[in-house]
């Protein structure tokens, strides 16, 4: 055998060996992929505990605060995985944003909202759900808040795993209620407050769905079903964008920036009206330029709603970061305050380092686990396009403003998902209405078979039932879990 043949055989053997190694590397990467997210999450939780230790230094209560910081980081990760999907899901489902773009925008604006406009003053035991005097001492209070924080995070984690967007605020409320009952009995709970929270389960999605359906009806009637769609869009899209800008200005003034400057509801509406009018006038020439040369069809209309939809998703994320994050890390702030001062009956300000844990945890949770719920909200409940997704985003802001005016406690999660349901059910109703008109115009046309009618349903009933069931049981499930965790902790510490 010549030297050339030997060299060729060696190269062939080397190629086979390298092929085996590359296959092994691919197989290892495939097997290890599901562990990347939990691994990074575990590192973040540990780093949060170390950060708490560095901030506090050597104190008698450092170990408890380190443990609480880990629980708070775990809760923040779950907020990012579950709650943020409500803001970004419609934009992704409508193809106005890619998944990567949505995650980047949400991470930036959620963190900005939490750090710049967050830091809410949290009442001692999660907004008066249980009476402060029902707690025996500061140590009991600390372990109660610890159990509430851990149990609410576990419940949101479970909901994310089964694909159900739930309210993290309601999870915290349920956790606090459960430990209150376990620590001091049923009489410790303010049942009037719990009644208003339970009412929001119904009020939030119905209001959100009705407002979103109303705007979709307006867009269909005044733009989509018009003979000259482009001319109608030039008339009405600037108006709709102006309404969006004004609503979000009022929303951010009232809710997102309330920690920077106090603004009354009337002043917020006045600010929103002025910005809405200015935006409407500005958008008239912009939409005219964008619509030049567009064909007279629905696909052209999607281009005109794309940028407003992306802006609305970013603003929703900012307002969410400013509000819901504070509620979620509130128990951690309460633990820090009670550990350092021994008092648990005063109002509690959230320290900056606690808000940083919340902001970074949301970003990591969204990046690692958020796509599942974003797809659920954006495309698996009903099919969305930019016009429908725009109606959902606008509905979320308007419903919060109306609910604040009426004094109703509402959930941003329930409003956004209710808006998606409202859009889907309106499309079903509108399709049925048009079919009935077609049958009247063509009497000989055969009716659809029951199987075909079920197939044409535009809202997936299985997802609808799963989500509604998760909403209903969130507070009692988190309460039960927190009571069990609290009793277990009390047994462990004697």
From TrEMBL:
<dbReference type="InterPro" id="IPR001204">
    <property type="entry name" value="Phos_transporter"/>
</dbReference>
<feature type="transmembrane region" description="Helical">
    <location>
        <begin position="412"/>
        <end position="429"/>
    </location>
</feature>
<feature type="transmembrane region" description="Helical">
    <location>
        <begin position="389"/>
        <end position="406"/>
    </location>
</feature>
<protein>
    <recommendedName>
        <fullName>Phosphate transporter</fullName>
    </recommendedName>
</protein>
<feature type="transmembrane region" description="Helical">
    <location>
        <begin position="198"/>
        <end position="219"/>
    </location>
</feature>
<feature type="transmembrane region" description="Helical">
    <location>
        <begin position="141"/>
        <end position="160"/>
    </location>
</feature>
<feature type="transmembrane region" description="Helical">
    <location>
        <begin position="92"/>
        <end position="109"/>
    </location>
</feature>
<keyword id="KW-0812">Transmembrane</keyword>
<dbReference type="GO" id="GO:0035435">
    <property type="term" value="P:phosphate ion transmembrane transport"/>
</dbReference>
<feature type="transmembrane region" description="Helical">
    <location>
        <begin position="303"/>
        <end position="322"/>
    </location>
</feature>
<keyword id="KW-0813">Transport</keyword>
<feature type="transmembrane region" description="Helical">
    <location>
        <begin position="464"/>
        <end position="489"/>
    </location>
</feature>
<feature type="transmembrane region" description="Helical">
    <location>
        <begin position="231"/>
        <end position="254"/>
    </location>
</feature>
<feature type="transmembrane region" description="Helical">
    <location>
        <begin position="172"/>
        <end position="192"/>
    </location>
</feature>
<keyword id="KW-0472">Membrane</keyword>
<dbReference type="Pfam" id="PF01384">
    <property type="entry name" value="PHO4"/>
</dbReference>
<dbReference type="GO" id="GO:0016020">
    <property type="term" value="C:membrane"/>
</dbReference>
<keyword id="KW-1133">Transmembrane helix</keyword>
<dbReference type="GO" id="GO:0005315">
    <property type="term" value="F:phosphate transmembrane transporter activity"/>
</dbReference>
<keyword id="KW-0592">Phosphate transport</keyword>
<feature type="transmembrane region" description="Helical">
    <location>
        <begin position="35"/>
        <end position="56"/>
    </location>
</feature>
<comment type="similarity">
    <text>Belongs to the inorganic phosphate transporter (PiT) (TC 2.A.20) family.</text>
</comment>
<feature type="transmembrane region" description="Helical">
    <location>
        <begin position="260"/>
        <end position="282"/>
    </location>
</feature>
<feature type="transmembrane region" description="Helical">
    <location>
        <begin position="350"/>
        <end position="369"/>
    </location>
</feature>
<feature type="transmembrane region" description="Helical">
    <location>
        <begin position="62"/>
        <end position="80"/>
    </location>
</feature>
